[in-house]
Amino acid sequence: MLVFKTSVQKRIDLISVKPVLNLLFGKKNWLFTFEDKLLKVASTVPCADIVEFILAENGVECVELT
């Protein structure tokens, strides 16, 4: 499980990344919590770089928490 702190403020910020995350990881393999602005991704392969790239391309800053 990878956890990312993000700059997401509103649900609209996720509209463009939602289809990509669904395609790459599946609808049930990622979760965003608005209370703490965390994106959690379940993956069996290293994917931190691609998640950070997808979010950055859509104007969302993120940092992987370790």
Describe the protein's architecture and organization.
This protein has 66 residues and is α+β, with helices and mostly antiparallel strands. It has two helices and four strands. It has helices spanning 18-25, 48-57, and strands at residues 2-6, 30-33, 38-41, 62-65. The chain has a four-stranded antiparallel beta sheet with strand order 2-3-1-4. A hairpin with a 4-residue loop joins strand 2 and strand 3 (38-41). The termini are close together. The model has no long low-confidence stretch (mean pLDDT 95).
Q: How much helical structure, as a percent, in the residues?
A: 25-40%
Name the strands of the widest sheet in spatial order: 2-3-1-4
Largest sheet descriptor: 4 strands, antiparallel
Rg measurement, Å: 11 Å
The N- and C-terminal alpha carbons lie at a distance of 10 Å
Mean pLDDT equals 95
How large a portion of the residues is in β-strands, by DSSP E? 25-35%
Q: Helical element count?
A: 2
Shape: globular
Question: What ranges have pLDDT less than 50 throughout 5 or more consecutive residues?
Answer: none
Number of strands: 4
| Class from secondary-structure proportions | alpha+beta
The helix/strand series, from N terminus to C terminus, equals EHEEHE
